[in-house]
Amino acid sequence: MNSLVWIIQGLSATIFGISGLLKLVTPKDILEEKIGWVKDYSGSTIRFIGSCEFLGGIGLVAPMAFGILPILTPIAATCLAVVMILATRAHIQRKEFKKTLFDLIMCFLAIFIAVERF
Fold this sequence. Notes:
Elements: H1 2-25, H2 28-34, H3 43-66, H4 72-93, H5 97-117
């Protein structure tokens, strides 16, 4: 079971890390062309979301991998689950129902990691 959790942690960390990094480094006008919900939020809010995703992705793997404060891994997973719940809510409000499936999958993976690592 431990190997499965590590695989899910690694995949989730990669997805969150890349997604967060893109939101951090890509200008808002370019993001608006590719991501519809960006129009509804300020540039600083988008960078905050990107920071949460990027740091959360690091937090899914680094603390346990290096053995430094491994309790941070399930805390990061819990925080990412909250981020994905909020993302699901935003997509539902915008009537982007197809995008909610991915959000919910990522939320459940984060919850799985949190439960297994707490």
